[in-house]
């Protein structure tokens, strides 16, 4: 038998091997519903280490005895991604749909870190094609901030949303929420009439109802028809719509057309129809980018060091509030008139160069800079990174953006690592204060082991924003845990 353990150096690699091969598996899951079911071979102890729900399921007073354990309300793809996180600590999100499905599973099994990673991805990437799906997900879990954000995107891109092929499959509550909006970017209420007609036809097909019968269309629409502002249409628009004869009786259509043509007519609006004559206003574009703040660190003692090939700089820090980290600012090299033999510049020459550095934006002379930036959490796991290879000026501050701006959580220790790969002189220094307040966020630097912060003065500023959603502090899906308790 092959000793596979000897070939896998890291814990996550060994966990992945166990998951993929099913070695020593002691529990089976049958995940999905209908014809989309998939069987998973897993390990009770590994699952219980990550989730109190699994712990109660396997080792609680009412431990699950079925084999396999059926989970019809989670998609197999989402369950696969959740197991990859549990076994390997890896999270690979590629679409809003995947993030929503995975977040549902993470909430069900009380995996709060995975929930927050999914929510961050949804907030960052939600756009009009998936805005309705994201809205329904947010509504399911009462994420009111995300619901508002999604509806803003829908209101701004209404025509695109209504014409998207996925709109015909949105939930009825989503349709009603859109029709309740006072502001929608549409050219006419006629767009909504046609959209709800197409939606009703699709719903009839799903239910096995005949699509050419008006009573079926009205049945699936429910109160949606009452939210259409027919009186904002012109007589020509009303008469030209092919959807109106399919949705309204002849008497209803006649009464509404008479009211549109002659508002003072004695003919009344049919019961259950909107009497509003106010057209919906255009929506304003939602704010897509958060405000970026800068936490500047103040140097009290200046010194410069020569980098001969590669030089590392790192600092640990915490914040008292959740933030989104976008990047850092570091100084570029000093431009010297002569080569220095020592590794440290004399104080008098350093002061002169520092004064030039602070007061000069650019000397017109550039060089090719090469920097790597890594962000780690307290367990040494890489959270994000950046590779900077650009031509920059001497005596400037370089703005380096992370590839994927991560959400950092309050009172958790993080470590920023900067790797300088260009030969030359860099301005360094020391700090007297290890705390700094910026935009209401308290940064505490050089926390924990003193050896975890070294040459930290190269990291001059931290660029961050406020999270676009509030992290829930309450226990997730506590009812699922109590079900097995």
From TrEMBL:
SMART domains: BACK, BTB
Top-level division of the source organism's lineage: Eukaryota
Span of domain BTB: 25-95
SUPFAM superfamilies: POZ domain
GO cellular component annotations of the record: cytosol; P-body
One Pfam entry name: BACK
UniProt record, GO biological process: neurogenesis
Listed Gene3D superfamilies: 1.25.40.420, PHR domain (2.60.120.820), Potassium Channel Kv1.1, Chain A (3.30.710.10)
Name this protein carries in UniProt: BTB domain-containing protein
Record organism: Cuerna arida
Lineage of producing organism: Eukaryota, Metazoa, Ecdysozoa, Arthropoda, Hexapoda
């Amino acid at each position: 038998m092959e000793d596979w353990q000897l070939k896998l150096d890291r814990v996550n690699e060994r966990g992945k091997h166990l998951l993929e091969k099913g070695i020593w598996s002691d529990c089976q899951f049958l995940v999905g519903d209908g014809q989309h079911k998939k069987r998973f071979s897993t390990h009770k102890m590994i699952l219980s280490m990550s989730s109190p729900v699994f712990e109660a399921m396997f080792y609680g007073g009412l431990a699950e005895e079925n084999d396999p354990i059926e989970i019809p309300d989670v998609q197999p793809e989402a369950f696969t991604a959740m197991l990859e996180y549990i076994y390997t600590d890896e999270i690979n999100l590629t679409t809003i749909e995947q993030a929503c499905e995975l977040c549902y599973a993470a909430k069900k099994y009380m995996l709060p870190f995975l929930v927050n990673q999914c929510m961050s991805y949804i907030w960052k990437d939600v756009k009009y094609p998936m805005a309705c799906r994201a809205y329904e997900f947010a509504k399911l879990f009462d994420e009111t901030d995300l619901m508002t954000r999604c509806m803003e995107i829908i209101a701004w891109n209404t025509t695109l949303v209504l014409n998207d092929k996925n709109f015909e499959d949105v939930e009825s509550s989503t349709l009603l929420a859109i029709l309740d909006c006072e502001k929608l970017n549409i050219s006419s209420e006629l767009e909504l009439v046609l959209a709800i007609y197409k939606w009703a036809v699709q719903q009839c097909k799903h239910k096995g109802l005949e699509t050419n019968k008006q009573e079926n269309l009205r049945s699936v629409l429910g109160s949606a028809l009452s939210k259409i502002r027919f009186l904002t249409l012109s007589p020509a628009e009303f008469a030209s719509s092919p959807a109106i004869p399919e949705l309204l009786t002849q008497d209803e259509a006649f009464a509404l057309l008479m009211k549109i043509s002659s508002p003072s007519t004695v003919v009344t609006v049919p019961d259950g129809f909107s009497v509003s004559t106010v057209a919906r206003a255009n929506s304003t574009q939602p704010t897509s980018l958060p405000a970026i703040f800068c936490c500047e660190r103040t140097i009290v003692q200046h010194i410069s060091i020569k980098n001969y090939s590669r030089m590392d700089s790192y600092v640990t820090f915490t914040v008292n509030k959740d933030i989104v980290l976008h990047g850092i600012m570091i100084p570029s090299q000093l431009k010297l008139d002569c080569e220095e033999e020592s590794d440290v510049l004399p104080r008098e020459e350093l002061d002169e160069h520092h004064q030039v550095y602070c007061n000069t934006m650019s000397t017109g002379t550039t060089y090719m800079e090469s920097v790597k930036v890594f962000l780690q959490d307290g367990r040494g796991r890489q959270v994000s990174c950046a590779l900077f290879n650009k031509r920059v000026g001497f005596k400037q501050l370089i703005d380096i953006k992370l590839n994927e701006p991560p959400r950092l959580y309050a009172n958790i220790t993080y470590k920023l690592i900067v790797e300088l790969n260009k030969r030359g002189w860099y301005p360094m220094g020391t700090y007297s204060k290890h705390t700094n307040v910026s935009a209401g966020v308290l940064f505490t630097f050089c926390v924990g082991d003193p050896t975890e912060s070294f040459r930290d003065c190269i990291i001059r500023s931290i660029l961050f924003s406020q999270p676009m959603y509030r992290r829930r502090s309450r226990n997730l899906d506590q009812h699922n845990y109590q079900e097995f308790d």
